[in-house]
Structures are given as C-alpha cells and as structure tokens.
Amino acid sequence: MNAPASTSMLRALAPGHRTMLLGTAREVSFPQGSRLFEEGGRADRFWVVRSGVVDLDLHVPGRRAAVIESLGHDDLLGWSWLYGPHVWRLGAGAATPVRAHEFDAAAVRDLFRRDPAFGLAVSQWVGEVVADRLHAARSRLLELYGPTAASAWTE
To answer: What region holds the Cyclic nucleotide-binding domain (predicted)?
Structure first.
C-alpha cells in the first residue's frame, strides 16, 4: 500500500520540482465510502494521499467491481489526467476517511509547457506509477480469475 521508493513523490521528484507541484495543491478530505472517480469519467485532477486508504477498482461485467489495489500515505491517486483522452481507466473509492493533496490537471499540464524539465520529471514519476499499477492489476486479476482462482471457487 505504501509507495515504493521509485513511485513516491517525495523520493521521485527533486526538491524544486516537488515544491513547484505542491504549490498548485489544495488540501481535501473524503469520508469513508465516498467515490472519488468512476471508470470512464473525465480525468481532470489527481491526488497524493496524505492519510487513509483508497481502493482502486475495475468494473467486471456480471460481477462486483474488483479491487485492484489499495493506496495509502504518499501514493499517487490518478494518472489518466496525464495521458489523452484524459478518461479514468479505473474507479476509486475511499475505504477509510482520506486526506489528500488535490491537483488540477490542466494547471499542472500548463506548468509542463512553461518548464519542460518539470514536465519531464513529473511524467517520469507518473510513468513509473503506471508501470507498477499495471503489474499490480495483472497480479490481482490473476489471483481473482486465474486458473487457481477458478478451482478455489469450485472447491
């Protein structure tokens, strides 16, 4: 649940870039059970979790949404804002009360245009997070729906 060193904003971004990004943040809170975004919705913001747990889920036709990963302190929540067409690839819900830094995606992308080194640093950080999330999603789906999961459902 806690961000690996490579995907933690505090470790991934140089102090100046981290300060620049945090300068655009606002503090937000979400009560337990609230939905932060839905798969297929417009991705116009992102968060870095300060406290609490957020579950990322994937719609599975004919079944309850599958929780792919749980995010906590210092984890990036949301990457679809960076890559067109800026649509959420997963859904997210607060598993506990959550406090986070919220970032307006358009404002951050504007900073990219003004400071390409900042844009490169943030893009690399987000790319590492995406790679980790894809690996986690694959592993979780194999746990849930792979051949050994199928036999566990019938035993």
So the answer is: 9-78
pLDDT at 7: 62
Tokens of 113: 């245009």
Residues with Cβ within 8 Å of 106's Cβ and at least 6 positions away in sequence, in order, are 44
Chain CA centroid to CA 59, Å:
16
Treating both helix axes as pointing N-terminal to C-terminal, what angle do 116-145 and 15-22 enclose, rounded to 10 degrees?
A: 80
pLDDT at residue number 149: 57
Q: Are 8 and 71 in contact (CB under 8 A)?
A: no
| CB count in 10 Å sphere of residue 60 | 12
Residue 4 has pLDDT above 60, yes or no: no
Nearest to 118 by CA among 49, 27, 23, 5: 23
Tell me the domains of the chain and their CATH numbers: 9-144 (2.60.120.10)
Strand order in the sheet with 98-104: 26-30, 98-104, 45-51, 76-77
State pLDDT tens for residues 74-114: 999 999 999 999 999 999 999 999 999 999 999 999 999 99
CA distance 119 to 125: 10
Which own/partner contact pairs does 120-124 have at CB distance under 8 Å and 24+ positions apart? Answer: 121/12, 121/13, 121/14, 121/17, 122/13, 122/17, 122/21, 122/82, 123/82, 124/12
